[in-house]
Amino acid sequence: MAAEKQPWQTLAKAKLDSINQSIPAHWRLPSLPRNEERRDVTGDYVRQFLSKEEIEITEALAPTIVESTTTGHWTAEIVARAFCHRASLAHQLTNCLHDTFFDAAIEDAKSLDVYLAKNGKPKGPLHGLPVSLKDQFHVKGVETTMGYVGWLGTFQGKKGTGKERVFESEMVQELRDLGAVLYCKTSVPHTLMTGETVNNIIGYTWNPKNRNLSCGGSSGGEGALIGLRGSPIGLGTDIGGSIRIPAAFNGLYGLRPSAGRLPYQGMPNSMDGQNSVLSVVGPIAPSVSSLQLLVKSLLSREPWLHDPLVHDIPWRDERTVISKDQKLSFAVLRHDGVVSLHPPVKRAVETVTERLEKQGHRIIEWKPPAHKSGLDTLFAAWTYDNGADVRSAFELSGEPMAPQIASLYGAELHAGPPKDATFIAANNVARREYQKEYMEYWNSTAELTGTGKPVDIVIAPVAPVAAGRPNGVSWYGYSGIVNVLDYTACTLPVTTVDKSIDVVDPSFKPLGDLDSSIMDQYDPEIYDGAHVGLQLIGRRLQEEKVLAVTEYVAGVLTA
Amino acid sequence: MAAEKQPWQTLAKAKLDSINQSIPAHWRLPSLPRNEERRDVTGDYVRQFLSKEEIEITEALAPTIVESTTTGHWTAEIVARAFCHRASLAHQLTNCLHDTFFDAAIEDAKSLDVYLAKNGKPKGPLHGLPVSLKDQFHVKGVETTMGYVGWLGTFQGKKGTGKERVFESEMVQELRDLGAVLYCKTSVPHTLMTGETVNNIIGYTWNPKNRNLSCGGSSGGEGALIGLRGSPIGLGTDIGGSIRIPAAFNGLYGLRPSAGRLPYQGMPNSMDGQNSVLSVVGPIAPSVSSLQLLVKSLLSREPWLHDPLVHDIPWRDERTVISKDQKLSFAVLRHDGVVSLHPPVKRAVETVTERLEKQGHRIIEWKPPAHKSGLDTLFAAWTYDNGADVRSAFELSGEPMAPQIASLYGAELHAGPPKDATFIAANNVARREYQKEYMEYWNSTAELTGTGKPVDIVIAPVAPVAAGRPNGVSWYGYSGIVNVLDYTACTLPVTTVDKSIDVVDPSFKPLGDLDSSIMDQYDPEIYDGAHVGLQLIGRRLQEEKVLAVTEYVAGVLTA
Description:
Two copies of one chain form a homodimer.
Chain A: H1 8-21, H2 44-47, H3 52-58, H4 62-71, H5 76-94, E1 97-100, H6 102-119, E2 130-134, H7 170-177, E3 181-186, E4 198-199, E5 203-204, H8 220-227, E6 234-238, H9 244-249, E7 253-256, E8 280-285, H10 288-299, E9 329-332, H11 343-358, E10 362-365, H12 371-382, H13 388-395, H14 403-409, H15 421-444, E11 457-461, H16 477-485, E12 488-496, H17 513-520, H18 524-527, E13 531-538, H19 543-558
Parallel strand pairs in A: 2-3, 2-6, 9-10, 9-11
Antiparallel strand pairs in A: 1-3, 4-5, 6-8, 7-8, 7-12, 11-13, 12-13
Helix pairs in contact in A: 3-5, 5-6, 10-19, 12-15, 12-16
């Protein structure tokens, strides 16, 4: 007699229990404040559950952590234990984890300490650095669910492949070789195709800075975890904003590299093989210096020898130089022609612009080819198969789609067959032509900057909102345009919502229903205190420059 | 009353007449030997129609030409005139041209001479260098047919676009800015999707070294023209061997760069938008030094600022260094598991291997993952749309497909609809997995070379044949595998067929019908004298290294 197939609810509950029980009993909080009772759980709130040393460790930046673990100031073990503890708190406060493997992490950390003592040198440039991973990376000993109940106990939905809990993604192997300590996997929306983090296993991941709001997505667990300093740096992926949205919503720096810069090899995905617009992998952290350390370290491994889609482009230090008196040219995007910015986001754009102008940098208005026409090619690529791949993952368990996903992939939207080769080819041509048009617009700004050169960097919103309302109306155009263009972009935190100044302009006139619905979601009382981030956009494969300029701008903002 | 649509034969004949009449009367040969009468029209044969100075100019290599035109040794005008003359002869002997624009070229050359005189410096690193172009590049004042009768008088098959004879491909603009002189467009097979050059306008392009045989394709006119030294360097494109096949068949060096190294922007193509395996653009010339000059010059223009698919990778001089005593590791591919090599190609492989071994270099046997499974993903990509795009181009005029094309795209083969998104995604995944498997095989050779490093370069045939027989059975697996892998490869001439030694091994046992049919086409009498070339294959985006090693190996062969 075949085993009875269990209802998806039973499987999901068992997994949730297992996640929660994996947190050591002495790190569990006896009672948890409801979201309404305690909006902001970052900073002093979370610190009350930590020792002074744990606070010092977990609030150190990645370069400081690596320096400490390689000089003996801290052991890798004590660092790992501190982050395991703080990650446990973060999960209890936001639902940000899909898996913990603290014991393995502490064993790995101990081995690193032994390695250092024995060899007198670190294992690699990330020696002893805890790194969190979105639940899309395959890690030995751990399962990957990508938010699907149907993937529990399988390898990407298939049983008996021999790869279950054994296979590791290329990036994971590289991180280990570099000396990183892996300890947890973070929550994602099932499918990864939305900017909120919701699934039938962990439910909803909240924004720790303002638990009325979403942590963002799809790398949302990363955003919440790092926002609470439960991780010094983590890795996400981005095909429309999935690194930058959670980074911005949580007051963090998140790099969306161009496709082919960092290895995606060996990671599952929705619609794997859709190659009109590739998803990319990139880091999120509380500082640019952390992102630089990780990217530079990964490139030192020559990932192009292990991932056929990575280009042979080593880290280029010479492109990170901004001399003391250098005048940069920025452009500023204040509106994408589709959706208007919520007041705090508008203020953030103005703040950055004014501060840079005060430093003597040139700022021009960014008036590019209509974003809408480029975005159409992106949204078309997301639904080439009319949702067939995504729906087959839901069918494994019979679990329902979250409404955020159903609005994109619900069966009622996709009665037709997948798109055909002729449609796909035409969409690829349309995207390429849009990219060409946009790049020539960028080139044309050489006539406007006064330097004789085109703008260096475009300052733009990541989203029209500081953070999303749960199951609210969304617009991914501000982040998605970067994916259309395959540009490099890095988010930076600018300010927090202040209900006393961030109020809707009474003269606001919406451009249409979408614009109106999104503005309607803004409420100063609800948003008060939330992080507000923006993105700095550079041209394709300009990771070094984008990071350097972001670090510079961050310095100007905090000066 | 609408104009009567003319039969395709009338349009084709008019175009052919116009090509032939564009050759100045004093350069027309009063009588032409039939192919049977005069097999080899290169060398002394073609020289008889040229002055001593014309011979000196047209047999100079690109770097020498540029040096001469920039030092005043030769004017750009005299160089242009010499190549226009020799190209005219080449066309009469092989049918290698689709268009000439000699007057414009001579005007451009005169302007360059004036520029030099006035400014005391050349316009750019290609100052005064004639460059021929496959009839796939758009050049101002000239039409692009890509071999289709239906494209005559149109822009890519469409009338009234306003781009006819005005629009220029990105590469063409770059060449002009670099100082190159453009003067002719060379023949291609309609569709570009075969390794022979045949269409309903110019008929068949012959191999000038042995007019029993094909010049190769699809950049076949380039091969024949440069093989006869009617051009010092030309540009072709390659999605399965279309640069390397004509280069090898004509005793030339042809570089197939990895996708994204050189700009393809603004060029028409068959199945444009099919982006599983991208066609690439690359140069063909009689020396590696010529290829290096062109690639380095093009990269100096930062083409990534004008083509969204070009990666920001400048020319890397440091990767061209091969020190005097450096021992390189080569691998040799003697059989791809599908089709056996004709005797002269087998001998060429042995010759190169032996010479390199004598120099003390390490050679290992190349036993990669079965090529067949990788090639299936390439061939699938060529027919995603089941021939719809190609057939629509034939339908414009009603002209018939050449049999070489009908065997791939004939209506009788493709009754079904285009493939769908699910099929295409699965094919993309299969290709990526094959690339990964292959790259790890390459990495694994570190254990075999004795240097602790993987092989530097793989020595491989471009085709199982020295050159194709007209409308013979073909196998593009040897060239196509490089496109599957997106590796960099450069051809090099090794020897010529010698009927006295290149005979079929009586013990040859075919692996199957294809293998048998291809070996059956070998006949020492027919092939005698033909060029035999091979390719040297490097990893992705290793253009500098592949060119440097090819130059080194060429030196060993001629020492």
